[in-house]
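Hi U.,

Before I forget, here's the chain from the pilot set. I'm dumping it here mostly so it's searchable later in email.
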Amino acid sequence: MPRTSIPGLSKSWLHGWPLVGLIAVGLTAIALLHGGVTGGLGESGACTMTVQAADVVVRAAPSGTAQPLETLAQGENVAAEAIVDAGYRKLTGGERWVPADSVAATAGSVC
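Structure:
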C-alpha cells in the first residue's frame, strides 16, 4: 500500500494524543454544524408545549404566589425549556413559569 504524506505535517501529528485531539476537534465541529442531539444551537421552539388546562397563569417565578404575568388559553402552543422546578415548567423568554401539569410536550418536541 502506498504511503500518503501531507506537506508541512510531520509524522508526529499522525499518531498518539495529537491525533486524538485532532479527531475530537473534528467530531465537535461536525456535532455543532449538525445540531447534535438538541436539534441545533440557538433554535427556539425545540421544546414546544401545548397548554392542557383552561386559563393557565404564567408567573414570574416557580411559585403559585409569584407575580402573574399573563394567561394562556387551552390548546395554545408555547416555547419552553427542559427546566422543571418545584412543579413549574420554565417557558422561554425570561422568567416565565407555568404549572408543569398544565402543559404537555407537543408531538415531535424535544424537551
